[in-house]
Hints:
By secondary structure, the protein is mainly beta. The chain has one domain: Trypsin-like serine proteases (Thrombin, subunit H), CATH 2.40.10. Helices cover 4% and strands 41% of the residues. The protein has one helix spanning 27-30, and strands spanning 2-5, 11-14, 16-17, 22-25, 38-42, 53-57, 66-67, 70-74, 76-85, 99-103. The protein has a 7-stranded antiparallel β-sheet with strand order 2-1-5-9-10-4-3. The two termini are 16 Å apart.
Amino acid sequence: MSVQSTTDDYHLCSGVVLDETYVLTTAVCCEQEDTFLMKVLAGTHDLGKGGQEVISPLADIQLFSAYGSFVVLLLQQVLLESVNVHEDYDAFNLYDNICVMTLDGQLNLGRC
Length: 112
């Protein structure tokens, strides 16, 4: 999962999907941009692509469900609703460097 700027699609940091509406990342990441200028990109290994469904040859993709000799990937882009930085975060020492992002929409977490 890539956390990106909405202004230029620049990769800011990585995150971990907690469920359909929450992403865990670092507090450092949440401080880089205003919330309304950030989005998450999921379902791709190419940080420059997302938001569309593509079909790729199975030889090019690993760890996804196969349909015949092809695999379907759902690439998703979702804007952020809010960020919640740990209340004890210390930017100097990087203590409690954790942040939960609330998405302005839901990720499709289909099964593999």
